[in-house]
Each structure stands twice: as C-alpha cells, then as structure tokens.
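Troubleshooting log. The previous run stalled partway through. Resubmitting the same two chains, unchanged.
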Amino acid sequence: MIETNVIVCATLWGVFGFQHSLLARPSTKILVNKIFGCTFETHFYPILYFVSQCIVFLIIYDIIRHLKPTLIIFVIPEEWNYFIFWFNRIANLFLIITVFHFDIGKFTGISQIIQFFYRTQKNAKEVNQNTLNSHYLYKYIRHPMYLGILLVFVSSTTIYTDLFFVSLVSIIVYIEIGSYFEEKSLIKKFGSRYVDYQQRTKRYIPGIR
Amino acid sequence: MNFRKISSVVLFLIVFVLPILIQYISTGQYFSGNDFVENHSYIRNLYEVWTHFSTNLINYLFFVSNPIFIFFVVAYLVQSAMKWTMSDD
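Second attempt completed without errors. Output:
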C-alpha cells in the first residue's frame, strides 16, 4: 500500500507545477490583459507572479521537508560527506551563475515596475522583449538552470528516503513537461533560429542528452 | 576595462562565495536534507499537514523574509551593480 506521505508529496509537487505553468502561460497573460488592462499585465503582473511563486514554493517545499519518511532507502557513508558537501556548494554556485545568464530585473518583474514609476526611456514593449540567449553555459546546454536545480537537490542530503525519490521523480517530470512547453513557445517566438539552436545543443547534459 | 571586470567578479565572490566559506568555517559540513530527515520531519497525515500549514501561514505570507525572494532581490542588485560597473566607460 502506498503511504499517505508519498501521495501528499507527489500531489504537492503536482499542485506547484500546475499553478506555476498555468500562470506563466501566454493564454493566462492574455486573460489578465483582457480583465485588468495592458498596463497591469505589462508592469504589475510579472512582479505579482514572481512574489506569488516565491510564497507558493516556500509553502509547498516547507511542507514536503517536514513530511515524515517511511523508508530510508540508502545512506551515503560518512567518509563521502566532504565530497558531497563541496559538490553541493559548487552546484549552488552553478545554479546562481545560471540565474545571472538572464536579465534578473525582467525575470522578477522589478524592471517593469521601475519602468512604470520612473518612465525610463525604454517603453514597456522594449522591457518585455526577449533576446535568444545562446552564450556562455547556454552554448553547451539549453536548460542549465534545470540541471543546476537537479544537482543542488540531489546533493542536499546524504540520507535518501522514499520521499526524496518521490520529489526527485516529480521534479524531473515537471522539468520535462515545463521545458517542452517552454521550447514550444520559444520556437513560436524565434522560429528557425531556435530550431537551429535546438539541433546543435543538448537539453541538459553536454553531448549526452 | 580589466579593472571593471575584476571588480564585478570580486563583487560576485563577496556576495555569493564568501558566505559559503564563512558558513563552512563556522558550522562545518551541513546538509539541510539530513537535518530535516533527522530533526524536523514529523508530519504523518493530512491533519498534520493542515496544522503545519496554518501554524506557519503568517511566516509564509511575509514575503520580505522569504529566502527565494531575498536571493532574487540580492541577485538583481548585484547584476545591476555589475552592469553599471561594466558600462561606465
């Protein structure tokens, strides 16, 4: 029989993935535009989306971390702790570096808010325009951030429980689905430039996958 | 130009790498995953999920202390400073 906590854990990841994708979909933005207007959608929706995701992720991850596992599948021997610890710290830095590959102001919605209040020279359309990022880490893989998330998660513990693997599978499934839809909209946006980029660059691991 | 690049790298190191070293020096090897499994995992059923959620709701909603929010705001400030340093010719 499947334990309650396994179901709770998978459901919580599912809820997070569903709302995260739904609120980021272009159709949701069109709906927000229709209801609240273009100004709200351009300048306020991005930061509200960002703040809401910070809150929702914290709620879900905090509950998942407090779930009591039923089964410890394996524990890495203590003599490996030093290696795992530094691997985790390097993975954290890798993840931070991937964040620095894109415009964090635009990603968080801070730039759009500043643009609204201070009316900088850039117009709203310009702030929202994206360029195809294929430099530095993106030259080798298409989703370095997802790889970073997985590496950080896998190395954050040396006690691997049933709930750890449920979370890991949920994250991988979400990343697969998320990146599929993300790439679909990128093809729509950049056309053959993105298809070329897809053909010469692997998804997560350079030269392998 | 080199000086500008170096100062950007130094800023990144101070904000993101130095805290890792300081934490290692002060607490040693710490695994958050192990800590939760050993000391903080107590939820066994849906009722306890609800209790945990309702007890911590105010903390969750106070987004100014949210670690993800803080990380991105700090990252935004650092990136802006780096851009400013690099572009100020």
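Takeaways: The first helix of chain B runs from residue 2 to 27. The interface with chain A takes residues 12, 16-17, 20, 24, 29-34, 36-38, 40-46, 49, 52-53, 56, 60-61, 63, 66-69, 72-73, 75-76, 79-80 of chain B (CB under 8 Å).
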